[in-house]
Amino acid sequence: MKSKIRQLVATALEHMVTAGLLDATTKPIFTVERTRDPSHGDFASNLALILAKPLHLKPRAAAKIIVDAIPSSPIVSHIDVAGPGFINFHIDNTAFLELLSEILTEDANYGRSNQGAGTSIQVEFVSANPTGPLHVGHGRGAAYGSVVANLLETIGFKVHREYYINDAGRQMDILAVSVWIRYLELCGETLKFPSNGYHGDYVWDIAANLHRKHGNDYRHANTEIYFDLPLDAPDGDKEQFIDAMIAKAKKLLGPTNYRKIFNLGLDIILADIRDDLGHFGVHYDTWYYESGLVTSGAIDKCIEQLKQSGYVYENAGALWFKSSAFGDEKDRVVVRENGQSTYFASDIAYHLDKLNRGFDKIIDIWGADHHGYIPRMKAALQALGHDPSKLEVRLVQFVVLYLGKVRVSMSTRSGEFETLRVLRKEVTSEAARFFYVMRTCEQQFDFDLELAKSKSADNPIYYIQYAHARIRSVFRQAAEKGIAVEQGPCPLATLKLLNTAQEQAILRTLSRYPEVVESAALQYEPHQLTYYLQALANEFHVYYNSHTFLVEDAHLRTARLNIIRAVAVVLRNGLNLIGISAPESM
RNA sequence: GCCCUUGUAGCUCAGGGGAUAGAGCGACCGCCUCCUAAGCGGUAGGUCGGCGGUUCGAGUCCGCCCAGGGGUACCA
Question: What letter does residue A497 receive in the DSSP assignment?
Answer without folding.
Answer: T
